[in-house]
Structure formats: C-alpha cells, structure tokens
Amino acid sequence: METAKLLIVFIVMMVLLWRKIPLVYVVIGASIVLAFLFGTDITGLLGMAWDATKDPSTIEIEAILVLIMILEQILRQKGYLERMLNSLTRLIKDRRIVMAIIPAFIGLMPSAGGALFSAPLVEQAVGKSVSAVQKTFINFYYRHIWEFFLPLYTGVLLVSTITGIPLTQVLLGLMPYGILVILLGLPFLFRIKVDEELAVAPHLNSETMFQSSANNTKKKLLTDVFFSTLPVLALVGLVFAKVPITLAITIIIAVLILRHKTNLIEFYRIARKAIVIKTLIMIWGIMLFKQVMETVGSFDELPALLGSLPVPEFLIFALIAFLLAFLTGQTGSYIGIAFPIVMAASGGQVSLPLAILVFMAGSAGTMLSPMHLCLSLTIEYFKADLNKVLQMLIIPESILVGTAILSYLILS
To answer: What's the pTM value of the predicted model, to 2 decimals?
Structure first.
C-alpha cells in the first residue's frame, strides 16, 4: 500500500512533466503531497525540508553547481571556450563529432554539474541549426559513457565493495557495455543535420585574449586545443588525484583569477552573471523529494512486492534496481539498496553476470529518470521537450538492458 502511494505520486509527476510543467514546481509539489499521504504534518514537512537543506550531499551539489557556473563564465569571458571550439572545428570538420566530444570530455569529471558545463559548449558548437531535443540527447547521453570504464565513478566502486567482486573484474565486465553505449549513440548523432549558416561559427571577438589566424597549421590547432582546455585538463587531473571536486574547481578558479588579474569587482560581476538561482532551487527540490522518500519509508515494501511477482528471480533483482534508479535518478540510491538485497537473496555470493545485469538495469533507470540531475539540468538549459528526449533515450537503454539479460542467460 505504501509503495503504491509512491508509484501513484510518481505517475502524476510524469504526467505533469509531459504537460510541460517546470520540474522545479513538480518535485516540490510532489514532495509536499507525498509527505502528507504518509501522514506527515506541517512541522514534520518543515523538518524534512531542513534536513534536505543541510544534508551534506545537497550542500556539496549546490556548491559544485555554483562553482561550475562561475568557472564556465570565466572560461567564456576570457576566450578559452571560443578558442577551443575554433580549433576543434578546424581540426574536425564534422560539427556533430565535436558536439559529442565535448560532453564526453567533460564527462571525465564525475561531478553532478558536468552536464551544465558542457551544455553551453554544445550550444556554441552547433547553435540553432540543431534542435533542442537533439542537443539535449547528445549532451546528456555522451556525458555518461565513462561510467562503465573509469573507477572515478562511485557506481563501479560501490558494486565492487558490496559484492566483493574485484574492481578490475567489474570494469572488464562493464567495458563491452561502455563500447556498446558509444556505438548505440552514433545513429542518433549522424542523423543530425547541421546547417552551417545557422550554426554559431566559432569566432573570437576583440575582447578576448586570443587571436586567430587564417593560416592555422594542424600543429598550432592542436596547441590551441591543449592550452584552451588546459583549465579543464588540470581539473580532471586533480580529480584523478582524488582532490575533492569542490576544492579542485576552487583551485582552478583561483589560478584563473590570478592569471588574468581579476579584481573583486570584476569577479563579483562574473559570479552575478553566472549563477542561475532557478537552477539551484530545482536541485534543492530534487533533494527534498529524495529526503521525503527516505524519511517516510516509501521504499520499504518494494522488494517484498516485487518478490511476489511470478517472474524469475534475476528479473526481480533487475526490476528492483531499475525502479529504485528511476524513482531517485541517483546511482548511489539503487546500488545502495538493490545490491544488498541481491546479496542477501543470493546467500552472500553474487556472480559477475548477475552483478552486471543489476548494474545495467539500474543504469537504464537513472538515464530515463527526470530526477537525474544531468538530465534535468540539460532539459532546463536547452528548454527541450522531456517526452521527446526520453523517446530517444529509451531505444539505446532498452538494447543495453536486453543485451545484459541475454548475457546473463548465456553465461550463468
């Protein structure tokens, strides 16, 4: 009964989103309704709101977003982004490849706000010649290709820790799916038509610090790409060195401020222009919804309910992971709940094929969830139609889960 309430609320949320009600209103409204459905009074709701606000995860995500907004504005104002796009589009004539490379490159940083960083670059690479839906899909989809390859992402680390399967085995098991993800995105990418007249041609204005030359050689272009992306490369390097993402971004911002001799007044103007309050409120609303779900115990009956279904056990595990991921949009949520359930039901021993299947089902859930921060941020930036984006996403995600099921049946 309790799980039914959660599912009803989520269905209503999806209907409202399909009717183009802004996500910020939907998640905050759903949080209030869900709390009252589970018998919470006003005082209790305010307590949940305060818990969500002071939650270290909320503070960290909001801080990361603010820092990324400021860093992106500095890089844009000082000409780094223009120089990078100018060089890339001279090196790679196909702008569609450029628009896929950008989010993939930024995706090396496993931060909640990475999609917001790459979105303006994708916009600048192809401009209005490509629809908002297509830009949203490419920016969101190619941002997440590294989750199957890199131990920087917490998902693979948690799976290895919980199941006891060595990390190298988990990564090797997921690597074919990472390659498949890249390949499945190509038909969508090359179906896009870029009108050069409508695309934003990368150029450098007189206010930037860089000068372009009509006779750029390949070597010079590669040098331009390197130095224009150096702040991001340094940021990725700091993350690889296990420097906390907030500290890493702060260090890069500080270096850029010193490098360009930015005074306090100019920095204030940059920050004021960069920070989008509506986006920060939307993220807070998502964290509030997560807090309400956890506090009222809306997940408690889900495993038992799914376990009563007349389907094979491995599909139950996959369905649990998918629903948890879809309802929360967070990798840590489905791994932290689904994998302990799988471990308990399997007597403490989980095979690699089963672990991969559960991971892929949960991954599909997060990619299709409006609660996923990267999706919500990208939708908000490009003002895209959520329905149309999900229609594009469901095809590759279905193939990935189907492949994982088939692999489990063959290998187990």
So the answer is: 0.69
